[in-house]
Specification:
alpha+beta, Rossmann fold, 2 domains, 16 helices, 17 strands
């Protein structure tokens, strides 16, 4: 670990930092909360601050470190965090990720793996809330990266103070604090940290963004300033989201896993609200972390304007005289199979007499033909063929959405509106 230096002071005093930690976790501390700690300066500062708050408020705090194996030092860095926690009486776990050969964007795959592992860890330990140590510098760098992608308001505000995902409430209590202020805090507390050498590797876009911030300083453009701009935009985004949710309440209807919009009312929508509804519908259907990029969405918007069917991101748009109906595309779920007690297609949960040998697959056209009373459900054929059914080999056991229940029930774990509230 980098040893604590002397003679440096931060612009943010300890009292302010402790107040941020207290505000973020105060209501949950009587129960239990988690904190993700890499061993870097930001997360070590967050860990110490939350531990101090926990000692004042009671409750329990549990830390986790992901040993990613991407550098030879990762195991030792995780060990440093474990030893710090042991000295301070903080429960700590190390999760190991060994990805093997990675194709494509290493940083993005590592990020997804890290959050997935931490979410699983939190659920196993009964933790509903996990904090991560991102700073105002991270927010400013993300703003520049998204700016280079010509992102809209959602992209420019993508580093949120808090959000829900995988059944966990995530928060970034220190998002308004600069990186150097946190290191100054660590120095005052005599706490060391690890500097990741990849933070100086210009092959990574985030490092290039960090260096660009230095070049912008003569114009008065600083990390703190850009972070505040992102905050202003986030407030504006909140109003746009609230409008989209109100509109969804008025013109959208969920039915057997599909979402339908009143076509006449759609024509009166502004382009930003309509775009939010399209992105929300796609993500609700395919459970993707992100909606497709702007040009792909624009092609779907053109199809809506021209009144023709289209497909995108594993979803099918069907345009009728009165409705715009978004359903899952059959080929997107063909061959998808899970146990009966697992989420199917990332969003369906079944309850019933689970037994070994039973599997969940799409009902499909052939399965629907075996459901004699499916028309009595008033659900569309297009919706029902992509709903989950319980199979034993080739024998259809149950298709709850199509009226063949046999003791089974099915539900979608999140409603459409929840996807309007997230990026």
């Amino acid at each position: 670990m980098t040893g604590p230096a002397t003679g440096a002071s931060g612009a943010t005093d300890d009292g302010h930092l402790l107040a941020l930690a207290r505000n973020a976790f105060g209501a949950l501390m009587p129960d239990a909360a988690g904190v993700a700690v890499s061993g870097g300066g930001d997360s070590m500062a967050l860990l110490d601050l939350l531990a101090r708050v926990q000692r004042d408020l009671g409750g329990s705090l549990r830390a986790v470190t992901v040993d990613h194996g991407l550098r030879p030092e990762s195991a030792e860095e995780a060990g440093n965090v474990a030893r710090f926690c042991a000295r301070h009486g903080i429960a700590h776990d190390t999760l190991v990720w060994r990805p093997g050969e990675i194709r494509g964007n290493l940083s993005e795959q590592a990020r997804r793996a890290r959050y997935g592992l931490i979410a699983d860890w939190a659920r196993r330990n009964g933790l509903a809330h996990v904090a991560v140590g991102h700073t105002a510098d991270d927010r400013a760098e993300t703003f520049l990266i998204e700016l280079s992608r010509e992102a809209g308001i959602d992209g420019l505000t993508s580093m949120r103070p808090h959000w829900h995902a995988d059944g966990i409430h995530w928060s970034r209590p220190l998002l308004s604090v600069g990186r150097e202020a946190l290191r100054a805090y660590l120095r005052r507390q005599g706490i060391g940290w690890t500097d990741d050498p990849t933070n100086e590797d210009a092959r990574y876009q985030r490092v290039r963004a960090r260096r660009a911030l230095g070049a912008l300083a003569p114009l008065g453009i600083t990390a703190g300033g850009l972070a505040r701009v992102a905050g202003h935009l986030a407030a504006a985004r909140g109003e746009l989201v609230a409008l989209a949710v109100r509109v969804a309440d008025e013109i959208a209807a969920e039915d057997a896993g599909e979402i339908a919009f009143d076509r006449a009312a759609w024509r009166d929508l502004g382009p930003e609200t309509a775009r939010r509804l399209v992105r929300g519908a796609l993500r609700w259907l395919n459970s993707a972390e992100h909606a497709p990029r702007g040009p792909e969405i624009a092609r779907l918007e053109m199809a809506i304007a021209e009144g023709r069917d289209a497909t995108l991101a594993g979803c099918h748009l069907r345009v009728t005289e009165t409705q715009l109906r978004f359903t899952r595309e059959p080929k997107a779920v063909a061959g998808m199979e899970t146990a009966t007690d697992a989420l199917w297609d990332g969003r369906w949960r079944l309850a019933g007499p689970h037994e070994p040998g039973l599997r969940v697959r799409a009902l499909g056209a052939e399965g629907l033909r075996r459901c004699a009373d499916w028309r009595a459900t008033d659900h569309s054929r297009a919706a029902l063929v992509v709903t989950p059914a319980v199979w034993r080999g080739d024998a259809l056991v149950a298709a709850p959405a199509a009226g063949l229940c046999s003791g089974w029930r099915v539900e979608i774990v999140a409603d459409f509106r929840s996807f309007l509230l997230s990026h």
